[in-house]
Amino acid sequence: MATHSKNHYFVPHGSLYPSVLSAGILLLATGFIFSVAMDRSKDLAYLQTPGKWMMYFGTAVILWMVFKWMGAVISESLSGKYKNWEDKSFRFGMIVFICSEVAFFAAFFGALFYMRVLSVPELASYAPDITPYKDFLGTWPSTGPGGNVLGAEYVPPANFKPMHWMGLPLVNTIILLTSGATITWAHWGLIKNNRKQLVVGMALTVALGIAFLACQALEYHEAYTEMGLTLGSGAYGATFFMLTGFHGFHVTLGTIMLIVILLRCMKGHFTPEHHFGFEGVAWYWHFVDVVWLGLFIFVYWL
Amino acid sequence: MSTVTVAHHEEHHDHPTGIMRWLTTTNHKDIGTMYLTFSLIMFLVGGSMILGIRAELFKPGLQLMNPDFFNQLIGIHALIMIFAALMPAATGFANWMIPLQIGAPDMALPRLNNWGFWLLPPAAILLTLPFTLALFGIGDGALATGWTFYPPLSLQGGIGVDFAIFSVHLLGISSVMGSINIIVTLFNMRAPGMTLMKMPMFAWGWLITAFLLVATIPVLAGAVTMLLTDRHFGTHFFDAAGGGDPILFQHLFWFFGHPEVYILLLPVWGFIPQILQTFSRKPMYGYKAQVYSLWAIGALSVVVWAHHFFTAGMPVPALLYFMYSTMAISLPLAVLFFCWIKTMWRGSMSFETPMLFAVGWIILFGIGGLTGLVLADVAADAQYHNSYFVVAHFHYTLFAGGIMGIMAGVYYWLPKMTGHMYSEKLGKLHFWLTAISFNLTFIPQFFLGLAGMPRRIPDYALQFAEFNMISSIAAFVLGLSQLLFVYNIVSCIKGGKKATDKVWEGAEGLEWTLSSPPPYHSFTDQPVVK
């Protein structure tokens, strides 16, 4: 059979990073389970301290391995090992990864729609004398469990208020949309080989990401201290905090990645032709942006 | 574009030996071997758990274990068999064979590939650790809810539930990483000239599987995360007191769970036609029809999930929708069955072990499919739901349709992977022992289910005694015959008649153009496909 070589595909050296990373994850997970084991049985309270130490150690291993792994990728990239063929693999891979992230958020959006449209109205529609949930409050946003439920007494917070879309959430929407524009402007700078525009655009994007996180921290603080809105506030509290919380977690990761890319831009790691690292993070940032728009519409506004 | 490079890959000649080779490897064959070995070990672990169950069910009354331990064995058996035996076996074949079949030098993302595998052993440890911890008085054992984690039981369970939640997270990350790798490899690494519609059927089966995994595994991850926050952080996703609903979990779980069935089966539907073609010595019938049917089944599989809980309470229009859409899957599946049979039709057939498994697989998987059609009927399901009929049905699809398919693949590719022929006599013996004892184990369970014996209960009424006894004895024969499988594999690795490059007279495809076993780095120069 005739052979034909496009070019040589780069297969990296064997590496311990993935297996040690997995060991770190095992430590973190086991440690977490130990540290919350007393939730189910008071006899297991003694596991809390070793569990915490396992979590710290596991997290340290994970961070160290991610740092080393990404470092290896960056040095391979700089030494010219990645050509167009490898580049295409990374692009496909990043797209599929972002699709899986979309599916993860879809689960929580699904839970929100299900509870709001189906379960909350249905629970409220039962005649009070045939349901154990006598004082269930079927309004949306639900103020959480109320009254005597299966022997446990729930007291909804007196000052409960849902999060309004005006104010911080609107500011955060503007911040994120602006950051989407600044990162695109930085990308234009990169394509034109204008290092100054690139670095300024990236620095602006990082600043906007940090500003978003600060606003969200402020919002959570207000929710807990002034509005009686907590994770335990029924269907509304659970979906509000899990959706915005996981989004915030992704913004945090995205900001860290943006900072790394900013430093790499300042060092001149990227060329107009060859900058997947930049683009991958930019795609991730846009994805986070789009999820936020969904949150703004369905969690805060409607 | 066309400079032929010969002296590359010198950077790989220093690959480490011993344990470090396996911990660090980025080679697709090494990683495939690790997946397959892991799968075989976990198959035996999960199998011995269920032998404990069958021993308990040998006669009425409680003999060997308390009901809680019985429940733990059932749930962990299922999780191990699905996530740690079947899925890694399919991924192992993907790693071994996809680069060889499409003429690629390796998988597209080799280090990610290694991580995908090395997430599995920690996940298996998390699944089984609670058993060990319970021996030392820590916690009360493993997950005891069955593999489905249904709340409210899973909200009340002990630390075993938390361990299982994190195990599912790791298994999920592993599957998503594996899927990313396979999708990228299939889109970016095919040999020049190999268009999508020239890809081997196994590659097509895996491509659709990988899309399903990427779309549904994260939903499962979300669902078990909600379970975790309900258990420890006071949310009310599945607690009606706060406006949540346990049925919400069933929707999220089965949105993943039903496609999961096809995730387990599509890779097998990929390589079984290749085996049929090889041993019928004629081209595959209806390649295009098969590819389109795989797509149709993949697409339908994500919109039928609620048929797993018809009896949980749903509006009638929803029941009807899920019934009709489920039954619609049988149309593309019937096309596939037709193509498989037509591939053999008037072929010059011979019955080596892989072919025996493949033909037996068609018949037994057919029974699994037809009983599924019965379960999809809302009215009939009211009787069958949660009975042993369901257990028998899904073992016909997942043991016969999944594991026996994988065994066909093992015997088909083992000579290529090891360079030695396995013992045909022992291979055939393994097939007949497996096929007969499998049927003797599960046919009685259809009748038990129809007569009303419920699943997941350690005790039963006297009228069920005879069928349970038959089923238990046959299950032990089935379990012990798998030791022969292990023996066949080990002795084939150690030695045996030298395999030729083509191995099988009628074999077609790029993997048969390489030596047996293939060189450590194959297709560093891509072949051109005409």
Q: From the helix content, strand content and strand pairing of chain A, which structural class follows?
A: mainly alpha
Mean pLDDT of chain B: 94
CATH structural architecture of the largest domain in chain A: Up-down Bundle
Q: Which shape of chain A, going by the Cα principal axes?
A: globular
Radius of gyration of chain A: 24 Å
The CATH topology of chain B is what? Answer: Cytochrome C Oxidase, Chain A
CATH class descriptor name of the largest domain in chain A: Mainly Alpha
CATH topology category name of the largest domain in chain A: Four Helix Bundle (Hemerythrin (Met), subunit A)
Oligomeric organization of the protein chains: heterodimer
Q: What is the structural class of chain B?
A: mainly alpha
- Unreliable stretches covering 5 or more consecutive residues of chain B: 1-12
Explained architecture:
The complex is a heterodimer of chains A (about 300) and B (about 525). With about 300 residues, chain A is mainly α. Chain A folds into two domains: about 15-80; about 85-300, Four Helix Bundle (Hemerythrin (Met), subunit A). Chain A is built from seven helices and two strands, in the order αααββαααα. Chain A has a two-stranded antiparallel sheet with strand order 1-2. In chain A, a hairpin with a 2-residue loop joins strand 1 (about 145-150) and strand 2. In chain A, helix 3 (about 85-125) runs antiparallel to helix 6, helix 3 packs parallel to helix 7 and helix 4 (about 170-190) packs antiparallel against helix 5 (about 195-225). Residues about 1-5 of chain A have low confidence and may be disordered. Chain B has one domain: Cytochrome c oxidase-like, subunit I domain (Cytochrome C Oxidase, Chain A, Up-down Bundle). Helix content of chain B is about 70%, strand content about 0%.
